[in-house]
Structures are given as structure tokens and as C-alpha cells.
Amino acid sequence: DTAPGGDLGEFFVIHSNLGQWYVWSADGMLAGRIFRDNRDPKRIFWQMPEHERGMILDDLSQLEETFNGCFVRMRDDNRCYVVAGKAEASIVEVLGVNEFRRHQGVAEVAQADLSQAEEWERDDAKRRIAETVRVADCYELPAYPVGEGGSRFRVAFDDASLFLAVEALSVGPFRNTGNRWDLLFKTGAAVDLLIGADETAESVRQAPVAGDRRLLLTVSADGPQAVLYDMVVPGTPEDKRWKVASPVGQTVVDVVRRLDGVELVHAEVWADPARMEGYRGYIVEARIPLAELGFAAAEGLRLKMDLGILQADADGGTTVRRFYWANPLALTVADIPSEARVQPDMWGWIRLRDSTRGPALITPGDLTDDKDAADPTLDLDLELE
């Protein structure tokens, strides 16, 4: 199209992978955006309850890989619109197309520059991880824990089990509508535990080794789900390995199976619990057999570990964001192999401590609003904001 006013001139509009559309000039300059990137904290998704005609949609974002829709300019009055949406078709007016002004300059970007930028991003992430050295102290408890709340997540253990409690605020509902249990990380909310059960494995390994496991915890229409991805199991026949592929890559997991011995409960968190008003988020508690994770409890045991939250859209039909305690690069939600892949060199650590003074798990109705409350046994934050 050609802008009837301003300096934009001839231009075109394309979709992106993360919910934004981009306006490009015919001579290859990025002029502006339509919609927000869905990783932007200011973004809102299409499932917002407000839908009055004429409302301002500056912060609207589409879901990942929403490639339908088009940009149009009306012949009679030159007003511009986009027809957009993933499960629906909405008409949104675009303002400002006639107000672009050009600035002079030259910029050259070669493939080597892009490769160098990707390498820098990974090296920078490793540097930041090395500086923070995230370690979760996991204390021994004499019985199944109950009690207080106030932290983003807590871990504890006894001789047979690992206890996990997660409090997730401002991340949508704990809802997952997927009907494929091995792909539940694509279809809604979940808690994602990653652990390396071999204490002797190289700590900076970029690829998984025997003992590296991922446990996905969620609730679907079939009830609580605990899916274990055992990344490397020597001797697994090639035709039995779990594989997912896309145009950009492939991920192989030797064994993927559901666990029956995991106890999982969850509850919604409300600003006013009595009236169930002012939805704030949810909490999840799980009791996980240590044998399924591949290690035995021992004082001072130190293993690689990470913990994440997979955020669902309002309907629990798709995963829209991922947050991890340690790994800042696990962000993709639009490529199955990337989402199934693990990066042990980006994980933090879990350390088992023999003490009955460890933290108890969160329980429904006993949460505190003070997220900075002093707790000598815990200093963890999923950085969900």
C-alpha cells in the first residue's frame, strides 16, 4: 500500500511470531508496530472481558503464530484497519499511518552480525547465571507438610518424597484443555520441574545426559497429570524414542511416561476468598516420589535443578508464556521441539539439607500479601512480573 500522507510512502505489513505486526517501508526500514509483543508486561490478550465498540487497543497482543488476518486501507476516506484474531475475526482501526517522518542514515547488518548477537545473548545469560548461582535449599521434614505461605515456590523432602509448592500470581488460570498427555506443555498451564539426578554429571553440559529429567505437573479434563520426560535412557530402542520436529529443529527424548504415584492438588487464590472475587492466581502442591526423579535423599546432595511456570490463556487452550527460576532463555512457546528441549547448563541447583526447621508448604487460604517477608530458609523468586 502507499500512505496518502507523511513520509512513509509505499509500505507493507507483516505478522511476527510473537503477536506483533510490523510496518515496513518499501526500501526496507522498520517504521512501526501494530499490537504488542506478547512478552511485553503491558500486553493484554484477545480474551479480555471488555469488548465495547470504540475502545482503545494500544496494548492488545495476539497469541503466538497468529498468521491470519490482513491490513487494509479504505478507498473512500483512507482510514486504515487490520482484520485480526486467531479464533475470531476482529476489526481494529490503525491510526498514525500518515504521520511518519524520515531520518537519514545507513545501517548494515550481515549474517555474521546476527550470529555474533545470538552467541552474545547466550554468553550473557551464562554470565548472569554464574553471578547469581541460584541454589534452592531443600529441607527435610518429618511428615507431610502443611502450613504457611508467602513465597513463590518451596521445596522439602523426606526419605521417600520431594514436596513442591508453587504460588503463581498474575499468570492466568491453572487450566489445561489438552487431550494429548505428552504435549500438555503446549496446551495450557503447568508447573515444570527439571532436575539432573546424577550428582557427578558435568555441571556446564549443554545437552542432557542420563539422569536429566523433566516433570510436567498440570490438571486436564482427565484430572491431575504428572508427565515425566526421561531425557537420556541408555539402551532405549530407536523406534521407542519420543520425537518432535519442526522446520527449525528436532528434539528426542528417550522415554516419556505418565506417573501414577504423584499426589497433586491446586487451588485458586482470590483477593476476597469468601466471595471468590478478585482472582489473583493459583497455588499448586505436589508430592513426588524420589525414585521417579532418580535419586535418593542424602544430606548435602547438590543437583542441577530449575522450576518454571507455563502460563495459559484465559480459556486454558494454549500456552502463551514460560517463566523459569534460573533459565532466562526458555521463552519460546511457538515451536514444539524448542519447548521440549532442556538446557542443563542454564539450570540452578537444589541442595538437600537435614533439618526439621525447613519451610512448610503453602496451603489454600493461608497466603500472605507480603512477598518480601523475611525467611532465612528461602530466597527464591520466579520473577513473574
Quick gist of this model?
This protein is mainly β and 385 residues long. Helices cover 8% and strands 35% of the residues.
- Rounded to the nearest angstrom, the distance between the terminal CA atoms is 39 Å
Task: Give the number of DSSP strands.
Answer: 20
Per the principal axes of the C-alpha atoms, what is the gross shape? Answer: globular
Report the sheet with the most strands, covering strand number, pairing sense and barrel closure: 12 strands, mixed
Descriptive terms for the model:
single chain; 385 residues; mainly beta; 12-stranded mixed sheet; 3-stranded antiparallel sheet; disordered C terminus
How would you characterize this protein structure?
It is a single chain. The chain is 8% helix and 35% strand. The protein contains 3 helices and 20 strands. The strands form 4 sheets. Strands 7, 8, 9, 10, 11, 12, 15, 16, 17, 18, 19 and 20 form a 12-stranded mixed sheet that branches. The chain has a 3-stranded antiparallel sheet with strand order 1-2-3, with no helix packed on it. Strand 1 (11-15) and strand 2 form a beta hairpin.
Please describe the topology of this protein.
Blueprint (H helix, E strand, L loop, with lengths): L10 E5 L5 E5 L4 E5 L35 E4 L6 E5 L5 E5 L16 H22 L2 E6 L12 E5 L3 E9 L20 E7 L15 E9 L2 E8 L11 E5 L2 E5 L1 E4 L4 E10 L4 E13 H4 L8 E11 L6 E6 L11 H5 L7 E6 L32
Parallel strand pairs: 7-8, 7-20
Antiparallel strand pairs: 1-2, 2-3, 4-5, 5-6, 8-9, 9-17, 10-11, 10-18, 11-12, 12-15, 13-14, 16-17, 18-19, 18-20
